[in-house]
Here is the input.
Amino acid sequence: MSFSALNESIAGDMADLSWEKPKNLQKAKRSERYKFLVGGVLILLAVLYLLVSGTLQGARYFITVNDVVSDRAYLGKTVRISGAVDGETIDYDSENAIIRFEIVNIPGEFDDLASALRDALADAEAARLQIVVEDEAMPDLLQHEAQAILTGSLEADGIFHASELLLKCPSRFEETSPEGLSAIPEHSLAGSE
Here is the structure.
């Protein structure tokens, strides 16, 4: 077979081919669009669920001592609690790096944190909770009337075993309030000259 005969044979075969769209192609496109739409909606619903559940779970920054002591549902669960440190109960075992102390429930409504901590510790009826923090150096801010924010779990023995300890000591900043500043001579308006 010569080259020209081969070329004519190929050209003839190509002329027989038609370039028409298949009739079921429209149905296939609709089916694929539907699959992508359903998949996109499912992904969107999953993301929304994660956002809402995460927001609801973290809605409370911490739980009060009253909540933990009175509700046995918190037993064994990891929670974040807050309370006023009773300085008379602080015990540090430096050999084993274990800190033991008690916290007292802080009232929910207050204007001044330092006063709220002081009032909470003065209240003999306030709920108290024993705290144990292991493998921790003694923090400088762990003192009487400090606010302790702890992450850990309440065990069956009634002791809260903390894995994280954050302390705030508002009494150090008490004198920087407007009332406290007026007591400092250089900030007093009365004796300015």
User: Anything to note?
Assistant: Helices lie at 3-16, 25-57, 65-70, 113-122, 178-182.
